[in-house]
Amino acid sequence: MKKQTTILAVIFVLISGITEAQYYGGGIYMQRGYRRPPRPMQRYQHYPRQRQKQQTYHPTVNLSFGYGYPNLDKNYFPSEFNGAVNAYEGNTFKQTGPVTGALDFQFSKYNSIGVMGTYGKVSVPYYDFNSNSNIASFNGDIKSWSVLFNMMTYFPSYETVSPYIRTAIGISTRNEDYTYPDGSKAVIGGNNLTDLAYQVSIGARFNMSPNAGFFLEAGYGRYIASGGLTFRF
Length: 233
Known about the structure:
single chain, Porin, 8-stranded antiparallel β-barrel, 1 helix
């Protein structure tokens, strides 16, 4: 009986040892306290990201025609005349334009340079100080032309709308003429007076098709507001 007990004890010890053994990659570590060896770090293969190809911009020539309002040339009229002619300026104005035209070369998606021209006409009546008549004594007329170097800056936009800033500077020539109803001279006016001309505006081009659309803008200089048609070639 004692012999059987000893054999059972030996078998129990062997089973306990095998149970506590740790296996790693087929190797057997019989001693307790061994830690599992660190797993090798997985190496991830990095593939270079493919950059999206940017669409190549094709330069265009932009042509636009517009009509501005109001014609600021009316500010050149004197409020009154004193001397050989005594008259004051009326409150009603007749004006045309300015009519505008611009030709620009858009060399990038966001910039273009070119030339802009304007033409405008404005008339105002003058009344005699010594008369209570509602009939004007004579009329004043100003006709003006301007040529400006035009720079356009476009903002990132949708396909149908292109916001922009217009900055233009150049020269303007105006002719002042004051005449009686019979056509004779009332006041000797200026002839081909030259001044600095400029225009600063913010607006948007609305593209109805890839090559045609219309524009609206507001600013100060040759006009306060303007709108018209634009074409792209």
